[in-house]
């Protein structure tokens, strides 16, 4: 029995067994050893979910380079004002804030009276992507995108797994003011569904549904990245011994030309951000990568300019672009790609991308790391899978490589839409990978 027959039989049996006869399955495969291609509905359009990050990260790594950094700039006057200008750093956190606070103090800053002036003007786009679901905007994975970002613009609520019902025992960053009304119960399902609603104030939430006891943490998105940044940073200044009045004015304002005290804080290099985007599927970082592609042409973080840069780079490489690209992360249901186009991009990357080794390293490993760490496919000894996952309502995607001896032998893209239960999509992925491992 040849591969097409095996695939058709496998998918038919899976659909009958799982009750997913109405789901659409598309797949494309390339063998590096033989140069042969194969596809099943490979030219059909599918919502790719986070497989959209493949387009974003391949282009950003090639266009911006692995050492690209974002800069957050701070200026102050002793006993007076504080200015903060965002440069788009998607990974700025409390540790970075502490470094800045200590640098400001070394330059003589001991007291601020205010106001605090924020410059988020590098990002003029909406803080969310086109087509993001409005009822998901309080979820941690839908955090708003700004030039000023702090702790991924999320608040993490922690629960005591030993308590009869989930009770908040802490949250991070601890420097913010946050509260949660909890209407949760425990679940033993890692995919337990949690619904998050904003209540009074920018940092109040209502948490409903179920939380997995094995990972007792819920991440909620803040309403405004710059305001959250200011709140956390001012508290860090206080922790470092700089006197800052409570309840001071925070507003927008331009950065000064020649401040008496100034600190420029560089982000980690782009290559380190890749593991957040591809490995952990962080949507905010993906969106910053996309918008950063537009900086050179527009002078701003621009989603549309970033999309045009991706499409232009793919055309230059003679690769088929996504049919519709609405964002950088894949959260939008407007995105459309074909398994064949994703597969060809993976083949090109393996052969010609100047930073392929770094990009491959950023992908999750089946059963080992990232969003694939908990997967359990029965693969032969010496076979690994490095692939980008994707999940939305009714959508499961997996595109990447089969590795033998750490070297890619197969490139594949498997896109599934119209699922009644996303877990069924994972089961199909496991079965398909077992089939591929027998031929790769």
Automatic annotation (TrEMBL):
Q: Which domain of life is it from?
A: Bacteria
Known SUPFAM superfamilies for this protein?
A: beta-lactamase/transpeptidase-like
Q: Which GO terms describe its biological process?
A: peptidoglycan metabolic process; proteolysis
- What are the alphabetically sorted keywords of the record? Carboxypeptidase, Hydrolase, Protease
- Tell whether 4Fe-4S is among the UniProt keywords: no
The entry lists its GO molecular-function terms as: serine-type carboxypeptidase activity
Per its UniProt record, what InterPro entries does this chain match? Beta-lactam/transpept-like, Peptidase_S13
**Is the Hydrolase keyword given for this protein?**
yes
Signal peptide stretch: none
Q: Which family does it belong to?
A: Belongs to the peptidase S13 family.
Question: What is the name attached to this protein's record?
Answer: D-alanyl-D-alanine carboxypeptidase/D-alanyl-D-alanine-endopeptidase (Penicillin-binding protein 4)
Tell me which species this is from.
Answer: Melghirimyces profundicolus
């Amino acid at each position: 029995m040849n591969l097409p027959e095996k695939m058709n039989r496998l998918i038919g049996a899976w659909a009958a067994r799982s009750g997913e006869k109405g789901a659409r399955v598309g797949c494309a495969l390339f063998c590096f050893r033989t140069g042969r291609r194969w596809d099943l509905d490979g030219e059909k359009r599918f919502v790719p979910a986070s497989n959209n990050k493949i387009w974003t990260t391949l282009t950003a790594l090639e266009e911006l380079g692995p050492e690209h950094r974002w800069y957050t700039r701070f200026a102050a006057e002793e006993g007076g004002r504080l200015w903060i200008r965002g440069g788009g750093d998607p990974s700025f956190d409390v540790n970075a804030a502490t470094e800045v606070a200590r640098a400001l103090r070394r330059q003589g800053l001991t007291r601020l009276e205010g106001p605090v002036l924020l410059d988020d003007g590098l990002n003029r786009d909406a803080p969310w992507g086109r087509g993001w679901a409005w009822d998901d905007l309080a979820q941690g994975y839908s955090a708003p995108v700004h030039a000023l970002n702090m702790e991924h613009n999320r608040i993490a609520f922690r629960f005591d797994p030993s308590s009869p019902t989930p009770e908040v025992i802490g949250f991070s960053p601890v420097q913010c003011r946050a509260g949660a009304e909890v209407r949760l119960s425990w679940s033993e399902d890692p995919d337990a569904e949690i619904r998050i609603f904003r209540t009074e104030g920018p940092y109040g939430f209502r948490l409903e549904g179920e939380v997995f006891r094995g990972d007792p943490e819920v991440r909620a998105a803040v309403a405004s990245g710059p305001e959250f940044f200011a709140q956390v940073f001012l508290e860090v200044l206080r922790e470092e011994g700089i006197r800052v009045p409570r309840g001071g004015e925070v507003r927008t304002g331009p950065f000064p030309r020649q401040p008496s005290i100034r600190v420029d804080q560089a982000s980690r290099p782009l290559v380190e951000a890749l593991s957040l985007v591809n490995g952990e599927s962080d949507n905010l970082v993906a969106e910053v990568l996309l918008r950063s592609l537009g900086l050179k042409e527009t002078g701003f973080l621009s989603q549309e300019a970033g999309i045009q840069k991706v499409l232009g780079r793919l055309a230059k490489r003679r690769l088929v672009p996504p049919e519709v690209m609405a964002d950088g992360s894949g959260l939008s249901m407007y995105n459309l790609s074909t398994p064949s186009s994703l597969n060809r991009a993976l083949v090109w990357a393996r052969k010609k991308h100047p930073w392929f080794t770094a990009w491959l390293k950023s992908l999750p490993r089946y059963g080992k790391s990232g969003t694939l760490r908990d997967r359990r496919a029965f693969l032969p000894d010496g076979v690994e899978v490095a692939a980008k996952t994707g999940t939305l309502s009714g959508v499961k995607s997996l595109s990447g490589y089969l590795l033998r001896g750490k070297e890619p032998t197969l490139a594949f893209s498997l896109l599934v839409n119209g699922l009644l239960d996303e877990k069924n999509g994972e089961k199909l992925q496991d079965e398909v990978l077992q089939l591929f491992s027998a031929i790769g």
